# Entry
Amino acid sequence: MNQIDVFIIIVAGIPTIFGLTSGLLKNLLAFTGIATGLYVAIKFNSQILSYLSQFSWHSTVMNLVSFFTVVLIFYFAGILIARKISGINFITKTIDRIAGTIFGLLQGLLIASMILLFINTLDFIPHEIKRNSLLYDDVIEFAPDAFNVISELFPVTKSYINEIEFLNDSIP
# Structure
């Protein structure tokens, strides 16, 4: 075990711990809440601003307040729903935490893989350290393998993945 292995364990370990403590439902529903909040804040911005116009605030302040308020409302609604669902009983809470741990580990491995791919393009890590690493070879291939699986499961993403590969190939 060398420096790269320690780096990989730390980078993969942090999201794993967050996944264990928060659970899969909280992570997914919080993300869904943010995405929905962004959509609603953008789609209904003019209606929200017309309501806020009764306050004598600067227009920039009203825009910011309306935007962030809507996003935060949907974010916290997602978290509240996740807590209610996962808190139904011990079994659902346990399954949620186990799934959250697995999801967090996958996130961490994906992040570590992308960082290693970027660092690898800079030829920053000596070849001997890479060769002596226990985890390097498997983790550096994790992101490309994950993108391949995603492109097979969701063919619509192939053009986006091809664009990323083109950008990656253009880096010297």
Remarks:
- The radius of gyration is 21 Å.
- The mean pLDDT is 86.
